Amino acid sequence: MAKVIKKIKLHNYKRFHEFEVEFKPDLNLLIGDNESGKSSILSAIDIVLSGSRSKIESVGLDSLFNIDAIQDFLGSTKKYENLPTLSIELYFNEQNNKDLNGKFNSDGIICDGLILVCEPNDDLSKEIKDILEQDDPNFPFEYYSINFKTFSGESYSAYKKFFKHILIDNTQISNEYATKQYVASMYQSTVESDEKNKHQNEYRKHKRKFQDTILKDLNERISDYSFSIKTNSKSSLETDLTISEEDIEIENKGKGRLCFIKTEFALKKNETDLDVVLIEEPENHLSHINMKKLVSRISASEQKQLFIATHNNLISTRLDLRKSILLNCNTTRPVLLKELTEETAKFFIKAPDNNILEFILSEKVILVEGDAEYILMDAFFCNETNEKVEKSSIHILSIGGTSFKRYMEISKLLGIKTAVIRDNDKNYTANCVDNYKDYTNDNIKVFADKDNNRYTFEVAVYEDNKDICDRLWSAGRKKLTVQEYMLKNKAEAAFQLLEKKITDLTTPVYIKEAIEWVRK
Question: pTM of the prediction?
Fold first, then answer.
């Protein structure tokens, strides 16, 4: 039976005071902007599965603790019994392992899992109280105990791992130490314990042989000193191992190829080698073509639970938005898209490249259906509000008219205030009212010109700005009228208006109404 992490719970860990989310057994996409906590969740899973005290000590407990929890305590009466604790809990599917099973968890239920608890060391309570009585804001991180426990209440360490996992951090793709750690982790997840002992013994023996034979003549010419081969833990088989592709070591590959090899190599491992694969920003340093290849490779992966942190549109949509866990830097509440219809999920899997991440991470959005509208919308917004769009909390996105319903469905699930601006195509009631009756609500509204004669954006702009448009394009016009010219050259006409006459333009009423509504 596959090993699966069902849920994670965080308490006072990094930016999360309290956080809880359930995971899917196959693929989990952690999607969010910078500082939203994507990397923190991957790191939390890695720390607990590793059972490694050294991982915590290497970054420092002070960098793992929620800063608000620390500041709140230091601003209080600083009582020993009120000192904050930090915990990370991983809930598993049933493992039939009595060492994992118990109710040593915050839910108080009998199940399988692991927990990290960082709390004040009661044996040092006197020393801690002395520090707390000092006037300066000094938090006693050094006096905290770091405890890795199973849900049965038993301690565990890095030497006893219940899940085989790997963390691939592509943000450090050029970091030599990170690459060595990756190779060592892949080796450890593949080799059997007795096989590993044999490898290490043989490697040490060959190093000794090299020293005793090859270096012999050299050392005989040196008095008092001699050259030797390092044999300590910092110069072992694992530190000297690397992975090669076509006889070229991965350290000598380009960054993009190195990223691809790391991910693909981990995904190729069969079901008995790795249970969990954690991937940090697989899009780093990849071309568009290689990104598509990587997406295809991830999609084909089986018998592993994957966790991918990304802010890339292609990866997010092509791997199925229903697998997404959305994180926003303004909140610690995760948002899931598991209720998205299969039709919409498949649309984004197959759709041309889109700006879906910009959309789902926004609070308020204006959606338009063409290049011309997008070119002029910023200027219309500024003319009507005396404010630049980038200084507001509103995003303007061009998505194509046939995609409106897909985005509106996501708006409904996420509560994004969405103004849809579209053409009436000569039938306002059918195309702009009845067509969206199942998609609109108090937070989602469609705006279009109610006059069926003003059937498209260019016609509305021309009708409201005839003098300006005629002055720009009447001269030399023989076959096409000015309006016909604008309709046949939509983007170019919009660009010329933006460049030459934008501050003089009158904004069509339906666009003005959309701007006013979305700003409320």
Answer: 0.74
